[in-house]
Amino acid sequence: MSDVSAPLPELQWLSDDWRKPVKQACDLIAPVWPLDQWIAVNPFWGLRHFPAPRVDQVLNERAGFSMLMPTEFYREAWEGGRIREDDLRASIAERGDERNTAWYLDWLGRKGAITAPMRGSILDTVAVANAHEEAGVLTDIVCDQVSRVCGAFFDQRQSRWSVSGNQANGGLFGFWLESVRQDLALDFTTGLKGGRAFFKTVPDGRDQAVQEALNRIGARGDELEALCHSLLLRVNGWASWCRGEDWRAGLEGRSSDRCEDILAIMLVWESAGVAFASTAQKAEWQRQRARASRRGAYDDRSRLWVWQRAFEIGYQRTLWQALESAPLKQALPDSGRGIPAVQAVFCIDVRSEVMRRHLEAVCPDVQTLGFAGFFGMPIDHQQHGPLAPARRLPGLLPASFRLIDTKGSLREDLAVNRSLDQREIARESVRKAKYTSLSTFTLVETTGLAWAWKLVKDTLKKGHKTRPDQSVEGRLVHSHGGDPLSDAERVALAANMLRGMSLTSGFAPLLVLVGHGCHTDNNPNQAGLDCGACGGQSGGVNARLAASLVNDPQVRAGLADEGIRIPDFTWAVAAEHCTATDKVTIADRHLIPDSHMQHLADLEAGFETAGIRARKERATPLKLNGLDDDNLKQAMETRTRDWSEVRPEWGLANNAAIIFAKRSRTRGCNLSGRVFLHDYDPTLDEDGGLLEALLAAPMIVANWINLQYFASVTVPEVYGSGNKLLHSVVGGNVGVVEGNNARLRIGLPLQSVHDGTHWRHEPVRLTVLIDAPEDRIESVLRRQPDVAALVENQWVSLHRMSGRGVARYDNGNWVAVA
């Protein structure tokens, strides 16, 4: 074993030489959000500037996993008819391969599982005996130790002994270094004799510690970036959380470098591995570093991508067939005076497609539209009481405004806040009392009786039904400064919303803005079932705010000056669609004029019938088929109150495409709840500004959702959160761990994508279909580098509607699709 106490050679690098690869490695990690704000995130977002097959190779080299399913999956898809010969032939043609389908079939039939190459961290080669005297490598012990420190540092709610201000001021790195220096059992748990003494020699400053560690490791440039990325992937959950902290700080105009903190920790551990490795272990490490830099099994992986693309073409074939089933020309629903009786605006969420289709079938005079579920309202929502403001907008955007609940007067607001504050103080006192050393048993046994009746009710599924958001009135102010919005700013909000949904004329008497949410019990992952466009919240609050703006006389006057004239007979109404029960609830009924009550009654009857049909369509995947209408509705409502239910609904599972077009292009098509639908009228967007906004925001959000589900199926051990039955919540809302493991799990639980027998989500990359001219789409690609990266690097598949056909974008050319 090396002499740990030997002096290091003099540092050879300039102080800034290492910063660029370190920052680049951090940028390769995608952020995650807290549980109560959970949104789906593309876990490959930091790698979007590289082709997807190349990223697959890089992840295999640096972390030992593949982005794709095993070969058996594609073999079963072929044998089951999910991939047809035409699909495989089209995939081979896209690649420009001279081999035929017979060759690929033969390769698939004889090819076993692709083995991952070894990874190039010395932590994998240092064999130690852990606390249980079991042989192992240092990697697992290091990742566990770092994870436990992160859990303690970021826990600001659950722990009774939280991080003090002085400790937090030193950052995550300083907190970790102090923890490891004070760990009297460190040598024993790691198997490194002299380990604690080693860490006492590490400089207190993070940058100095990193420089010393890198000098010992001896990596720089591209090799250093690869090593840093590999180390971050070892603690991917906590690295993603740190990246999320940095991301959210940036949206708020603050600086944060938590991801560099955790990378510095891993680099110091890597240097410890170098210091304690034997000569033989160092030689093995060098061999692994050289092996990781080679192409490995790249040819096999590229062939597997041909099968993945064939699998996706198979889905696209069914999508094109569904679109062909639409009538040649759909007339606008007509109430008798050239306009529809009702216009219902739904979120673009794939679950809304089912409800819209059935509502249109039972109410032919209703026009439905698709728009991002936050309705263009970039707000934080401040409710009464001690709760922090809730973000109700996409994670990509900063909250420009704040909606503050009010009872109508300052005195009433103070009274309500005081009452809620006192209630929370009492609850917190009980929580603290439960964890004192003297009351551990006595208080728990005494208060346990008070919870007995609640446990009985929850077990019998008799708990209170969760209601959609029915909040009080709100004051809309600027997030910074708290000043109310000017009339011009409120007009701009409403105008951007209406233009975004291509609704600037032909207004119906009743305009219904339908947000959505999912109401479940005892479910840490509930926010993942709510509206992704609303930051993991339900969309009712945004819908109510948007409706109030549209109904405001001053806003309407301003809209008229903007060329958007809303008739006096039009009234905007907010509603919320519960995606677990397919029940739609109207908000603020008391504000609706009597003249519109008949339209509302007809619409509510339509919602009820459409809900019955939607529940029947969803019954089989939920294993509730065979029930009559009433029992099926009751069964779905019961699932929302069942605290033991791990699958209250399937969320956005099986999402596969997004379409930007007028609803007339898709109305009457059964898209099977797999397509995001966003209204877009190309005739109202000559300069392409609206299309640019749609591709730069809703399309990217759809890509995040799509690849989150994709990765939770293909790489569940890294990008999925594991078994929901074993989850424990960390830090209140930080995330979940599985069992007694300290490693933070991100992504979707297994139960959200698998029913116990089959995958409920097909891992396909997002198909994007746009009704717009070629040059308009291409101009967006030139102006939006993130959109271009997703398209050109095969993270999405871009198509445009061409007459009655479809054309695919391929390296600057448009290729007709059969």
Q: What is the radius of gyration computed over CA atoms, rounded to a whole number of angstroms?
A: 28 Å
Could you give a short account of the major beta sheet? 6 strands, mixed
Strand content: 5-15%
Cα distance spanning the termini: 65 Å
Separate helix tally: 30
Question: What is the general shape?
Answer: globular
Poorly predicted runs of 5 or more residues: 4-14
Oligomeric category? single chain
Biggest sheet strand order reads: 13-12-16-17-18-19
**Structural class, judged by helices and strands?**
alpha/beta
In total, how many domains does the architecture comprise? 4
Average pLDDT over all residues: 89
The amount of helix comes to: 40-55%
Number of strands: 19
Task: Write structural notes for this entry.
The protein has 818 residues and is an alpha/beta fold. The protein has four domains: 19-48 and 132-277, no CATH class; 52-117 and 298-320, no CATH class; 340-401 and 463-752, no CATH class; 414-454. The protein is built from 30 helices and 19 strands. A six-stranded mixed β-sheet has the order 13-12-16-17-18-19, sandwiched between helices. Strand 3 (342-347), helix 17 and strand 4 form a beta-alpha-beta unit. The longest helix has 27 residues, at 298-324. The protein starts with 18 loop residues before the first helix and ends with a strand. Mean pLDDT is 89; it is low at 4-14.
